[in-house]
Amino acid sequence: MIVLKTIDDEDVGWKNEYPIEKLKERKASRAVLIKRDMVAMLYVAKHEYHKLPGGGLEPGENWGQALSREVLEETGCEARIIDEIGQINEVRREHGIRQTSYCYLAQVTKDTKAPTFTLEEAGQGFSLVWVPISKAIDLMEKDTPKNYEGAFIRKRDSLFLKMGLEKHMDGRSSQNKK
Predict the structure, then answer these.
(1) Rounded to two decimals, what is the model's pTM?
(2) What is the DSSP letter of 119?
(3) Is the dihedral of CA 4, 6, 7, 10 positive or negative?
(4) How does residue 44 score in pLDDT terms, banded at 50, 70 and 90?
(5) Where are the alpha helices (DSSP H) in 47-147?
(6) Domains in the chain: how many in total?
(7) CB atoms < 10 A from the CB of 45, how many?
(8) Residues 128, 76 contacting (CB under 8 angstroms)
């Protein structure tokens, strides 16, 4: 998968000298999830930002399996991957991790149930919102996260969202020409 960007503390306005060689690896899978002309976003009320559905790979999972599980947990939907968007590497020195996120453009195939957030996610005030495609990027870019993690997420997910919606619109244009 193509690497779109590497984000470090300085990219989000933090200064930290934690040695890079001591960072733990974390892998995550994310989605720009489309349902009709809407995109799924999670609002994190405690820290005042939006994020894309997705999360860390569990032992034995591949990227696609993790994405399916996370999308179902966080949106209550089943989805199919339409295309790859790209990879973003995050060097979060304050948290001691180096995270690799793969992101996919996905489409809802079945709206099965309500989201099932973890206790930690519920404690942060997670809620699912479906945002019109035409307003999603602007909404995310106007966020001003109140924490370190949110600053990384906003930067990462804004880029994934832009790239994903561009692919979605390009795909719709090519379907209309047929």
Answers:
(1) 0.92
(2) H
(3) negative
(4) very high
(5) 63-75, 119-123, 133-142
(6) 1
(7) 10
(8) yes
Q: How many whole angstroms separate alpha carbon 32 and alpha carbon 164?
A: 6
Q: What is the pLDDT of residue 172?
A: 66
Mean of pLDDT over the chain: 93
Span 113-126, average pLDDT: 95
Q: Identity (one letter) of the amino acid at 40? A: A
At which residue do the structure tokens 């307003």 appear? 135
Q: pLDDT per residue over 12-26, tens digit each?
A: 988 877 777 889 999
Average pLDDT over residues 132-141: 96
| Closest to 104 (Cα-Cα) out of 129, 86, 88 | 86
Provide CB contacts within 8 A for 168, sequence distance 6+.
32, 34, 82, 105, 133
The boundaries of the domain holding residue 115 are: 3-177
CA atoms within 13 A on the CB side of 147: 13
Closest CA to 167 of 103, 88, 97: 103
Q: H or E segment at 46?
A: none
- Longest Cα–Cα distance of the chain, Å, equals 54
